[in-house]
Design brief:
mainly alpha, 11 helices, globular
Length: 319
């Protein structure tokens, strides 16, 4: 374990367990969903804020779940080069982390009640499946994060679902004829633009996981944790990284070529120097000393890209 020490306070340990450095990644897709909604004229403040709070709670709950299950399954060892895990490091008792996980997911459900009243059955399915996916990523008898499926989970839930779900609850909230608790997707509540706009967030979120798994590849192999990086090796994992990052910069060009969006959609390209800089590190390094800062920089790239993309989508409608 990289930095665990006996003198870490309980309060600091809980902050470490929540991993605040990951929260921009949880917020970024919601920001994009809001941008698409503003462009379409369906922005709704209440559902947007609830989607943001719910996304952050699910992110924190998943962080607690990963910390707990990786420790009890023996995946977090003293050789791991990543940020300190509080359960494996003995900073917080496993039972406490497990209770915190349940409480955080419980709060997400409470927030979700409001969104369910607006979005109905589709939000029930998305919310409960998202929580289940967060737990089963490293928990349960067959943790799919240990079988090379973690990248798919992140792409779907932290990209496609998060962006389109944020758009959906706002769109439905502005459709008076829909009423409370729709059981199907009302026409126009999920658009091709929303789905396409989710791809950059999906790609950059997945790129964060790729960096994490490249850094931990050797220790994961030793612990029997078969991430996609374990299966692919360093070269093809880096190809995956470049594909995910590259997609984030191709999609805005497609939007800019659409007359309904125009050149404002190119705003995310302002973040390209960040992406190029961190890519150089990921393409050449495997050690935690280099990849831990890179991990945070990819998260920063995701958040900046998402802010710029949301602004580029929104500005033509508000200027």
């Amino acid at each position: 374990m990289s930095t665990a020490t006996a003198d870490v306070s309980k309060r600091k340990a809980w902050v470490m367990a929540a991993r605040p450095q990951t929260l921009p990644a949880g917020a970024a897709p919601v920001v994009v969903g809001v941008g698409v909604a503003v462009h379409a004229g369906v922005f709704a403040l209440g559902p947007a804020l609830a989607a943001l709070v719910g996304a952050l709670l699910i992110q924190i709950g998943t962080n607690f779940a990963n910390d707990y299950y990786d420790a009890v399954k023996g995946a977090d060892t003293d050789d791991r080069e990543g940020f300190t895990r509080v359960t494996a490091g003995g900073l917080i008792e496993p039972a406490e982390v497990k209770r915190a996980m349940a409480a955080t997911y419980g709060l997400a459900v409470v927030v979700g009640v409001y969104l369910v009243a607006i979005g109905g059955l589709p939000i029930v399915v998305v919310g409960l499946s998202g929580i289940a996916a967060g737990i089963l990523y490293t928990g349960g008898p067959f943790p799919y994060g240990y079988r090379g499926l973690g990248d798919l989970f992140v792409f779907v839930y932290f990209g496609l679902v998060a962006v389109t779900g944020t758009y959906y609850v706002q769109a439905v909230a502005t459709m008076p004829a829909v009423g409370t608790f729709p059981t199907t997707l009302p026409p126009g509540s999920v658009t091709a633009a929303a789905v396409t706009a989710s791809l950059p967030a999906a790609g950059l979120s997945t790129a964060i996981l790729v960096v994490n798994n490249v850094r931990d590849r050797e220790t994961d192999m030793a612990a029997g944790k078969k991430t996609l990086a374990v299966y692919l090796g360093y070269t093809w994992s880096r190809v995956e990284f470049l594909a995910m990052v590259g997609m984030a910069y191709v999609v805005p060009v497609g939007f800019a070529l659409d007359g309904a969006f125009g050149p404002w959609a190119l705003a995310p390209l302002l973040s390209l120097p960040l992406a190029v800089s961190v890519s150089r590190t990921v393409l050449t390094e495997t050690e935690g000393a280099a990849l831990n800062p890179a991990l945070e920089r990819v998260g920063q790239t995701l958040f900046v890209h998402s802010l710029l993309f949301a602004a580029g989508l929104s500005l033509p409608q508000v200027l």
